[in-house]
Design a protein that fits this description.
By secondary structure, the chain is of the alpha/beta class. It is 43% helix and 15% strand.
Length: 346
C-alpha cells in the first residue's frame, strides 16, 4: 500500500523547500525541467493531487490568522485573544475570531472556512463535543494540506502540531496542597467529564497532592459535572450525605462560585466551614462574595506563545519542521475563600 503523501514529504524526499515543490507542481519556469519532472513523477506515483491551499499557503500570505475558541464569555479565552492580537498586530497580522460554541460541527465548519485560503494559520482550543466524539479528521486533513496549526489549553495529544498548555497538573497540585496545609482533611474536587483533557489533568494534580499529603482518596468527593444538567443540582450531592467536605477544589471558577452558592443554601459558611479554591482567575473570582482563591493560567502569555509558535511555522521553510509543546506555568492567588494561615497573618 502506497504511503499518504504531503508537500512536506515530497520536499524532504528531494531535499528542497516546500515552496520549490509547490512551484514544480505548478510547472513554474523558475524550477529546472529535470527537477520539475522528477517531482511531478513522484507526486503522480503517489497519487498526490495538489490543491489551492497546499500550493499557495507558503508563497501567498494573507497576513491574517484564524482563532477558534469554544466560547467568548469565558474570561480566560478573552485574555488569550488579547495576547494573540497584541503580538499579531505588532507583526502586521490581522486576527479573525470564530466560535465553536463547544460544537464539533461548528468547529469543523469554521476550520473549513478559514482553511479555504482565508488565513495563513489557525490557533484553536478544541470544543468539548470534539473531545467527547474523539473524531479529529478535520485536524489531520488541515495538517496534511500544509496549514500551520497551534492548539492551546484543550489539546489533542495524538495530533502532531504545535501546542500551548497551562501547567494544569501543577496548578491543581498547588490548590489542593494549599487546602491540605490549611488543615483540610476531606477535600472534594468538582471536575469535568473525563473526556475533557484539562479536567483530567487537573484531577491528576489533585490526586497527586492527596497522595503527597497522605490523605485517602474518597470517590464520593470526586464530582464529575455533566454540563447538560444543572450544575447546582449536581453539586447538592456533596451536602446530602454525612461526609461533608471541609475543602473543595473546583477545576474552573464557575464551578467554584456555584459550589459556594450551594454550600450557603445548606447553611455552610465560606471559609469557616468549607474552604474553596477555583481554577482560571478572572473578575468572577475577584468580585465573588467571598472572593475566590484561584489558580491563574496566565491566558495572555498563553496567547502570545501560541502566536509565536504559529508564526514560526508560517515562516519556516523546513521540510522536516519539528513541532513544539510550550508549558505555561500557573500560580495561586490567595483570597477570602480560604483561611489565612498563621504565617500569612504575620
Amino acid at each position: 500500500m502506497k504511503q499518504k503523501i504531503t508537500l512536506k514529504k515530497i520536499a524532504k524526499e528531494f531535499g528542497v523547500s516546500i515552496s520549490t515543490v509547490s512551484k514544480a507542481l505548478k510547472d513554474s519556469h523558475e524550477i529546472s525541467l529535470e527537477v520539475k519532472e522528477r517531482i511531478q513523477a513522484f507526486a503522480k506515483y503517489y497519487h498526490y493531487k495538489p490543491n489551492n491551499l497546499a500550493l499557495n499557503l507558503r508563497n501567498q500570505k494573507t497576513k491574517t490568522i484564524g482563532v477558534i475558541i469554544p466560547e467568548i464569555v469565558h474570561h480566560f479565552f478573552t485574555t488569550v485573544i488579547t495576547g494573540i492580537e497584541k503580538l499579531a498586530n505588532d507583526k502586521g497580522y490581522n486576527v479573525m475570531i470564530c466560535l465553536s460554541n463547544e460544537s464539533y460541527e461548528k468547529e469543523v465548519l469554521n476550520m473549513d472556512m478559514l482553511a479555504n485560503g482565508v488565513v495563513d494559520g489557525i490557533i484553536v482550543s478544541v470544543a468539548k463535543e470534539t473531545e467527547e466524539k474523539g473524531t479529529y479528521d478535520h485536524f489531520r486533513e488541515l495538517i496534511h494540506n500544509g496549514m500551520p496549526l497551534v492548539m492551546f489549553d484543550r489539546v489533542i495529544e495524538e495530533i502532531k502540531c504545535n501546542k500551548v498548555i497551562a501547567d494544569d497538573k501543577g496548578g491543581a497540585f498547588l490548590a489542593t496542597d494549599k487546602l491540605i496545609n490549611n488543615g483540610c482533611t476531606k477535600i472534594a474536587i468538582i471536575t469535568t467529564p473525563d473526556y475533557v483533557t484539562v479536567g483530567c489533568e487537573r484531577k491528576e494534580g489533585y490526586l497527586k497532592a492527596l497522595e503527597a499529603g497522605n490523605l485517602k482518596i474518597n470517590k464520593d468527593l470526586i464530582i464529575n459535572i455533566d454540563d447538560k444538567q444543572s450544575v447546582e443540582d449536581q453539586l447538592q450531592i456533596l451536602f446530602l450525605n454525612e461526609n461533608i467536605p471541609d475543602g473543595i477544589f473546583a477545576v474552573n471558577e464557575i464551578y467554584a462560585a456555584t459550589v459556594m452558592k450551594v454550600a450557603a443554601s445548606f447553611g455552610y459558611h465560606i471559609p469557616d466551614d468549607i474552604e474553596v479554591i477555583g481554577f482560571t482567575d478572572s473578575l468572577i473570582s475577584e468580585f465573588a462574595t467571598p472572593s475566590i482563591t484561584s489558580v491563574s493560567q496566565h491566558g495572555r502569555s498563553m496567547g502570545q506563545k501560541a502566536f509565536e509558535l504559529l508564526l514560526d511555522e508560517i515562516d519556516s521553510e523546513d521540510s522536516d519542521y519539528q513541532y513544539k509543546t510550550a508549558l505555561i506555568q500557573t500560580d495561586l492567588k490567595v483570597r477570602n475563600s480560604t483561611k489565612k494561615t498563621h504565617l500569612q497573618k504575620l
